Amino acid sequence: MFKEKSLNTTQIETLGEFGLIEHLTQDFNIKNASSIFGIGDDAAVIDISEKLQLVSTDLLVEGVHFNLSYTPLKHLGYKAVAVNVSDICAMNGDAKQITIGIAVSNRFSVEALEELYKGIKLACEKYNVDLVGGDTTSSTTGLMISVTALGEVKKENITYRSGAKTNDLLVCTGDLGAAYLGLQLLNRENEIFKDNPKIQPDLTGHDYVLMRQLKPEAPTKYIKILKELDIVPTSMIDISDGLSSELLHISKSSNVGLTIHEDKIPIDYTAMNLANDFKLNPITCALSGGEDYELLFTISQKHYDKLKTDPDFTIIGFVTDFSEGNNFIASDGSSHMLIAQGWDNTKK
Ligand code: ADP
Ligand code: MG
Q1: How far, in Å, is the centroid of ligand 2 from the Cα of 112?
Q2: Cα 136 to middle of ligand 1, angstroms
Q3: Radius of gyration of the chain (CA)
Q4: How far apart are CA 55 and CA 57, in angstroms?
Q5: Would you say 250 and 235 are in contact if contact means Cβ atoms under 8 Å apart?
Q6: Which numbered atom of ligand 1 lies nearest the CA of 18?
Q7: What is the dihedral of CA 197, 202, 206, 211, to 10 degrees?
Q8: CA gap 297, 161 in Å, rounded
Q9: How close is the Cα of 22 to the center of ligand 1, in Å?
């Protein structure tokens, strides 16, 4: 890592635009019945039958959303797909198709784009989605990737941010804060490397946080479990910007208050240790870190027994009346106001 991989360098011009598209997409197979026609015409054709069609787009820009000095292109391709699939999950749906737009500067070779598409293909296989189209153009500045994910959901299962009800339970999946700590670690080692390229990065023992940052997974398995348990959340959002900002989105959209308990927030122990090394509060990393791609949702209390013993799901709080506001109950029992960046340090 941190060292430019010595890829063979075939100039993109040698293939031309159509040749390049054909070359990059030739190994992709269509898997879903709803993908009627993919790459090769003016538009892809999707059969949406009686379900609701979900559509979500993300644009990733080099230097803003990713740093290629420590992000392998294959991981970047995987992540670009995973974060879009995550948005479809957050509506309680199944992702079925993606389209990919790329803008590339002549700094990139055909082999570099092959790496990107290897990651895209891996994610397509993992999440059972079909690559059905895209667009390819040149850029003067760097790499840009725009991914659009298409998904479907039965009308009775659609889950918005806006359906949380007073007394519902507030649940989150997996654990939080690790992706942010992975980024801190990569940035620190990258700075050391820039100052002295002879010093090799020391990333040993940090597999989990690095994986959470570089190769995040979309929360498809939780959507499957919820379906099996016959639970339709009353509201849901994916945790891309940090727990506290997602809580405020649900609060605002649903017109409710939310209360969470500090000692319930799930944090992986290796992330906890790394936060201590960085002299960061692990709870702050969970609340304002971002990029964890877990799900935050609310459920009716009648479902409590179905989820209470599953370690994948943590009940972190509950829904109140809007008038009670959004509250963070610290481990010492004190109550604080939740704000987008975490919580207000002054006691109420
Ligand atoms: P048009 O001129 O109609 O926009 P293009 O030549 O851009 O068509 O694309 C030809 C076909 O290849 C279309 O089906 C398009 O969706 C697909 N495509 C173009 N670029 C990409 C890409 N980067 N990844 C996947 N499919 C692509
Ligand atoms: Mg085009």
Answers
A1: 21
A2: 7
A3: 21
A4: 7
A5: yes
A6: 6
A7: 20
A8: 8
A9: 9
Tell me which residue of 40, 52, 38 sits closest to 130, measured CA to CA.
Answer: 38
Cβ–Cβ under 8 Å, residues 143 and 98: no
The token duo for 47 is 């059969």
Please state the pTM of the whole predicted model. Answer: 0.92
Nearest Cα neighbor of 295 from 87, 115, 113, 111 is 87
Name the 3-class secondary structure at 17.
helix
Closest Cα partner for 267 from 227, 294, 297?
Answer: 294
Three-state SS at 210: helix
Return the beta strands (E) in 62-110 as ranges: 94-104
H or E segment to which residue 307 belongs: helix 304-307
Helix axes 110-126, 16-25, angle to 10 degrees: 40
Neighbours of ion ligand 2 (CB under 5 A): 135
Each of the 348 residues of the chain gets a pLDDT tens digit; together they read 665 455 678 888 889 888 999 999 999 999 999 999 999 888 999 998 889 999 999 999 999 999 998 899 999 999 999 999 999 999 999 999 999 999 999 899 999 999 999 999 999 999 999 999 999 999 998 999 999 999 999 999 999 999 999 999 999 999 999 999 999 999 998 888 888 888 777 788 899 999 999 999 999 999 999 999 999 999 999 999 999 999 999 999 999 999 999 999 999 999 999 999 999 999 999 999 999 999 999 999 999 999 999 999 999 999 999 999 999 999 999 999 998 877 776 665
DSSP 3-state of 251: helix
Q: Which two tokens stand for residue 246?
A: 């997602």
